[in-house]
Design brief:
With about 375 residues, the chain is an alpha/beta fold. The chain has a single domain, classed as NAD(P)-binding Rossmann-like Domain (Rossmann fold). It has 12 helices and 13 strands. Strands 3-2-1-4-5-6-11 form a 7-stranded parallel sheet, sandwiched between helices. Strands 7-10 form a two-stranded parallel ribbon. Strands 8-13 form a two-stranded parallel sheet. α3 links the parallel β4 and β5.
Length: about 375
């Protein structure tokens, strides 16, 4: 049974480790957590350097070797680990990369993170795992809405689905072996937003959006803001179990395309869909295998369990699509204007530790996401 208890740490402080801090979700979560004064320390780890500037978060360049992660956990007395590394988009964006490297990170990497938290005397008392609705798959005989208690009806069809199922199985095994650790798993619906780059964002960015002829599947989205908000919500509360994260409301694909201001193009044949999708890649359109079945059958998720813990979505599915529409309108104007952040170790060391730096009140507060999130627990309706 999910509860909304506060941390058991002395004076309410948490010491948090965020894995995958150089990726979009890990970086956004770290900057959001920086504004919460009940968090005593935030450590971010990744094998790649950060792509955004941090305030209080201390970045450590390290891979997924469980021995090194365990040393950091012990040395910093980490009590909460948030694993944001899972990559579920086989084209590019937050989950870019070829399938082989994805499996190495998704499954082997997850096992290594769990091993680093598994010793009997580990200080870790909470694990938050960012998962995906791909755990459910997409099939013709699926229920209207998947609840967290339901099982998959069919074996995984794609490499990404297999990765998600295997990674969650490892987390479930860890939970059984370490009943003293609060384990929270979040399964996210398709993400849209003003900054995030996914296969569906690329699909909806086309002048004419291809559909499978004869199919108009149901879609449920979650805005990028609510992804970070959900991770922060679960990080700051003891909420054991699995939770769907999908906004209120369901849209058909044709409704989604219309809301964005595009036109549908039902050119993908209903038979031999995989071959047709492969042929379209030669024209610059990449449809991941896990997306093809969703374009045929769609998917709905029951989101009531997370809302029962006091979580409130900022955006509905419809509003998430409108948020994306505004971004797509501005993309041609802002192309080439962005000045991406580049991590420079010497500069970061100077800014953090030099006595010559003049520090103003609030300098250590996360700059990007602080205004979006209320660090105090929400009141249940």
């Amino acid at each position: 049974m999910a509860t909304d208890e506060q941390p058991r740490n002395p004076n309410g402080a948490r010491r948090v480790l965020v894995t995958g801090v150089s990726n979009y979700w890990g970086g956004r979560l770290a900057t959001a957590l920086e504004s919460n004064r009940s968090i005593e320390a935030i450590v971010g780890v990744d094998s790649d350097e950060p792509t955004r500037e941090f305030g209080r978060t201390e970045y450590v360049k390290v891979g997924e070797q469980h021995g090194l992660i365990e040393k950091i956990v012990r040395a910093a007395r980490i009590d909460t680990v948030v694993d944001t590394r899972l990559k579920v988009d086989s084209v590019r964006g937050p989950g870019g990369g070829p399938p082989v490297s994805l499996h190495e990170s998704n499954v082997i990497g997850t096992l290594n993170i769990l091993a680093a938290c598994s010793t009997a005397d580990s200080p870790v008392r909470k694990l938050v795992f960012k998962s995906s609705a791909h755990w459910y798959g997409c099939e013709q005989d699926d229920p209207a809405f998947f609840a967290e208690s339901m099982r998959r009806r069919h074996p995984p069809r794609t490499a990404i689905e297999r990765d998600v199922v295997e990674a969650e199985a490892a987390v479930d095994e860890f939970s059984r072996q370490r009943p003293d650790v609060v384990v929270s798993v979040l399964r996210f619906a398709n993400v849209l937003g003003g900054e995030v780059d996914t296969s569906h964002v690329q699909l909806f960015g086309l002048p004419l959006v291809p559909m499978i002829a004869g199919f108009d599947p149901r879609y449920q989205f979650v805005d990028e803001v609510d992804v970070v908000h959900a991770l922060e919500h679960v990080t700051m509360r003891d909420l054991p179990g699995t939770f769907n994260v999908a906004a209120d409301g369901v849209l058909t694909l044709s409704e989604t395309i219309s809301l964005i201001g595009k036109r549908p193009l039902p050119v993908i044949p209903p038979w031999g869909t995989g071959l047709a999708a492969a042929a379209m890649r030669r024209f610059g359109l990449s449809l991941p295998a896990e997306m093809v079945n969703q374009l045929r059958f769609g998917r709905g998720m029951d989101n009531r369990l997370l809302k029962a813990t006091g979580f409130h979505y900022r955006f509905t599915s419809r509003e998430s699509v409108i948020h994306l529409r505004e971004r797509l309108r501005l993309d041609p104007v802002s192309a080439g204007v962005a000045n991406p952040y580049r991590y420079e170790p010497a500069v970061e060391e100077f800014l953090r530790h030099s006595p010559n730096v003049v520090r103003e009140p609030g300098d250590s507060v996360g700059r990007e996401d602080a205004a979006m999130f209320d660090p105090s627990p929400p009141v249940d309706d």
